[in-house]
Amino acid sequence: MGLPRPVLIKRLTNELERCSGYIGSDIRFDPDKVTFPIEITVNMTNVPAYAKTDDEVVQIKDHRYKVVINEEYPFEKPRARWETPIFHPNIMPPEDGGYVCIKLLDKWSFGSTLLSFMKAVENLVGSPNISNPFGLEICMESSRFYMDNETKINAYVSFGSK
């Protein structure tokens, strides 16, 4: 059993206002016309990631995914479905379901918010968990790609140099 409908609608209204402030654009939400499930389409721009076309891996910066919220929110976590091409260890390509695997979803609780969820997805795109890919071959292949192409930093200390 979820929250009473008026309480749920008020919470969603408040959370979507916070999300609007974070992304800098208005998320239209009419509390008087709510039907479940609610789908929120999120477009991200200038967030570097990769896509694979044929056998070529190319950098992309524009992404789209949907957040689906049902009447049991916030007791039940939202679902996310990726809609644009992506080559990522923790995000299935749309043709394979578009599922997004982030720890926040595993640890979802009543105190979790849509804004923290959106920030976690944004962070995941640029910083994949390469040691824990989905079991699909394409996700495991992208994990190997990220390992082979991850940023490497070398540093050393010298004494007495002028």
Radius of gyration: 19 Å
Approximate strand percentage: 15-25%
Category by helix and strand content: alpha+beta
Span between N and C termini?
Answer: 70 Å
The percent of residues in helical segments reads 25-40%
CATH class identity = Alpha Beta
Structural shape? globular
| CATH-assigned homologous superfamily | Ubiquitin Conjugating Enzyme
Structure summary:
The chain has helices at residues 5-23, 103-106, 114-126, 137-148; strands at 38-44, 49-53, 56-60, 63-69, 79-82.
Explained architecture:
This protein has 162 residues and is an alpha+beta fold. It has a single domain (35-148), classed as Ubiquitin Conjugating Enzyme, CATH 3.10.110. Helix content is 30%, strand content 17%. It contains 4 helices and 5 strands. The protein has helices at residues 5-23, 103-106, 114-126, 137-148; strands spanning 38-44, 49-53, 56-60, 63-69, 79-82. The strands form 2 sheets. Strands 1-4-5 form a 3-stranded antiparallel beta sheet, with no helix packed on it. A two-stranded antiparallel ribbon has the order 2-3. Strand 2 and strand 3 (56-60) form a beta hairpin. The longest helix is centred in the first third of the chain and has 19 residues, at 5-23. It is globular, with a radius of gyration of 19 Å. The model has no long low-confidence stretch (mean pLDDT 91).
